[in-house]
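Morning!

This is the sequence you dropped in the shared folder:
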Amino acid sequence: MPSFYIKRIYDEPSKDDGLRVLVDRLWPRGMKKERAALDRWEKSLAPSPELRKWWSHDPERMDEFATAYQAELDASGAAEVFVEGLAPDAKVTLLFAAKDLTINHAAILKDYLTQLAAHK
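The structure's back. Tokens below.
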């Protein structure tokens, strides 16, 4: 089963990251493409612009945001396509630009993808 991790894109890339995938819709401010060392940019796994703006990284809205974001992922099918395209033993680091390591969409996405991969 693939394993998923999260990391800020501003943190130094590591050979231990495995497949480095940016999961933001917008390119991170001040980040040069060479330094990002991306393998893929999966905009389709990010929350919609409307949902992201509504949430505004408000910790009090985290649960409601998580429910809405998971519903978007269910409806789009992008997460299933992403997981199906991974090697069974893939190590995937989901990269995000938010400052908070726990209040961010990548943490929700990591759990979502882990559950999805477990049921494949």
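Headline: The beta strands are 3-8, 19-22, 40-41, 91-96.

More detail when I'm at my desk.
O.
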